[in-house]
């Protein structure tokens, strides 16, 4: 069967889903992604992906998996077609219904299943959908394994067997019970929860109420058109309503959850956005107080303070490439990693959880930590040194161009500067300043981030990077040299 190679991305399967595409949607797609190339995840493709996934699980000796779906157009239909394909290979399937990605992660580990899949488009706009796939122990199926699935589909070399069984099962009670048993509040807290009209709104507010919080709902009603903002909790521009609401309600904290629930973002009691790598420092200090000598994993986009402070906390810092799949893989191979975090808001808990990224679990953990002190969240964060840092600047760049840009910049800057190349090019301009250019592995853009001691230094480094980036016509007109925060857009290109 012929299938679009483009849907098999590095960390998951993702594409344009459905049976028809309206003119308005095509116009919106082309505004950001270039010429519309057509729907590439149809119900027929979903069946084929299910067959390929079932084949991979069967080859690993697996027998039973769990599958859920996020609320968005065609989500349930794609799930049912996918399940049809999986069952045709002889694999038994539990249908979790509407779910969150971390609930599927949890279920795979908690019930000791042989795999799990969530049908999700994550925080992407409504016409995207796809499949996050994992094997036993929530071991990610990604990269070469996804290409293996593609080859199985193209060759139609599926496993066959007696049709696998099918059962519907709600797992939310077990998930909630586990979360509440492992997180306790020492005092009641008032929190605003912004679910961004994603599926997280069906679960996160109730769980945090059961934890003992007074919860103010913001955009909890699922609506996959995302009418208020894109549910990306690490894009400060998508968090503006949450920032205002926290101040209005005089809340202790604001928490944003992305559409499929595996990431969270934090707003302090003053309505100020808190970067995820600063929250990572707070988590690290707390966790290492009980786990001396363990490793803290952090992605290449994080502040230099992680490398500086984690040893002071009693741990070992480990810089890593960005991405939930390779991070989960590394944390399964290296049991000394007690915690991990990314600038994107993925936090991976190993102390009392399954080494998975879970936005709701992370929110509960943060609230538990905050409740045990008389300090405000801003005071907890302000214990760490301050630097000047840009947000994660997302610069639109076509897939066929972005990797060449990074390669060229690496060659140029490595001649005169110390350059870390584990994921893109992180250029060390001084002992306290650096700039990063990397190609996103999931979307058509470059990621830029800069850190220094002063805003003047940050702007200087941005301009040094811009001098090289403007050589490429595809991105030259999108550069803004003047501001630390620049280039905003509906899809969170900042």
Automatic annotation (TrEMBL):
GO terms for biological process: carbohydrate metabolic process. Residues 392-467 form the Alpha-D-phosphohexomutase C-terminal domain. Residues 37-157, 180-271, 277-386 form the Alpha-D-phosphohexomutase alpha/beta/alpha domain. One of its GO terms (molecular function) is intramolecular phosphotransferase activity. SUPFAM superfamilies: Phosphoglucomutase, C-terminal domain, Phosphoglucomutase, first 3 domains. Its cofactor is Mg(2+). It comes from the Bacteria. Keywords: Isomerase, Magnesium, Metal-binding, Phosphoprotein. The keyword Metal-binding applies. Belongs to the phosphohexose mutase family. This is Phosphomannomutase. It comes from Candidatus Woesebacteria bacterium RIFCSPHIGHO2_01_FULL_41_10. The lineage of its organism: Bacteria, Candidatus Woeseibacteriota.
């Amino acid at each position: 069967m012929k299938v679009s190679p483009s849907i098999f991305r590095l960390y998951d399967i993702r594409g344009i889903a459905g049976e028809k595409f309206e003119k308005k949607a095509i116009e919106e797609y082309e505004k950001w992604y270039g010429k519309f190339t057509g729907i590439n995840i149809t119900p027929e493709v979903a069946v084929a992906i299910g067959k390929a996934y079932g084949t991979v699980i069967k080859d690993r000796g697996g027998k039973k998996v769990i599958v859920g779906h996020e609320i968005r157009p065609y989500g349930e239909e794609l799930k049912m077609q996918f399940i049809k394909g999986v069952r045709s290979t002889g694999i038994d399937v539990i249908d979790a219904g509407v779910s969150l990605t971390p609930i599927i992660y949890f279920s795979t580990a908690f019930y000791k299943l042989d795999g799990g899949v969530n049908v999700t488009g994550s925080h992407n706009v409504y016409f995207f959908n796809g499949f996050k796939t994992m094997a036993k122990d929530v071991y990610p199926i990604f990269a070469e394994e996804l290409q293996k699935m593609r080859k199985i589909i193209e060759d139609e070399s599926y496993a066959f067997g007696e049709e696998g069984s099918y059962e519907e099962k709600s797992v939310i009670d077990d998930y909630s019970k586990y979360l509440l048993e492992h997180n306790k509040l020492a005092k009641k807290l008032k929190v605003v929860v912004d679910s961004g009209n994603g599926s997280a709104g069906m679960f996160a507010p109730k769980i945090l109420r059961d934890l003992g919080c007074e919860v103010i709902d913001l955009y909890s009603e699922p609506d996959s058109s995302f009418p208020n903002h894109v549910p990306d909790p690490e894009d400060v521009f998508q968090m503006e309503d949450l920032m205002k609401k926290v101040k209005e309600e005089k809340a202790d904290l604001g928490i944003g959850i992305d559409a499929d629930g595996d990431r969270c973002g934090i707003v302090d009691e003053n309505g100020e956005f808190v970067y995820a790598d600063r929250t990572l420092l707070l988590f690290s200090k707390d966790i290492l107080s009980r786990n001396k000598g363990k490793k803290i994993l952090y992605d290449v986009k994080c502040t230099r303070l992680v490398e500086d402070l984690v040893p002071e906390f009693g741990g070992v810092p480990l810089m890593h490439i960005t991405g939930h799949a390779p991070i989960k893989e590394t944390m399964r191979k290296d049991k000394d990693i007690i915690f991990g975090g990314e600038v994107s808001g993925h936090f991976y808990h190993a102390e009392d959880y399954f080494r998975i990224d879970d936005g709701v679990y992370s929110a509960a953990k943060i609230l538990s930590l905050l409740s045990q002190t008389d300090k405000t969240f801003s005071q907890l964060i302000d214990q760490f040194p301050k630097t000047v840092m840009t947000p994660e600047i997302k610069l639109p760049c076509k897939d066929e161009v972005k990797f060449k840009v990074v390669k060229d910049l690496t060659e140029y800057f490595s001649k005169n500067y110390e350059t870390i190349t584990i994921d893109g090019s992180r250029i060390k301009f001084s002992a306290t300043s650096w700039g990063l250019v990397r190609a996103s592995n999931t979307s058509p853009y470059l990621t830029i981030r800069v850190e220094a001691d002063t805003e003047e230094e940050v702007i200087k480094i941005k301009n040094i990077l811009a001098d090289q980036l403007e050589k490429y016509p595809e991105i030259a007109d999108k550069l803004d040299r003047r501001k630390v925060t620049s280039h905003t857009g509906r899809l969170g290109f900042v």
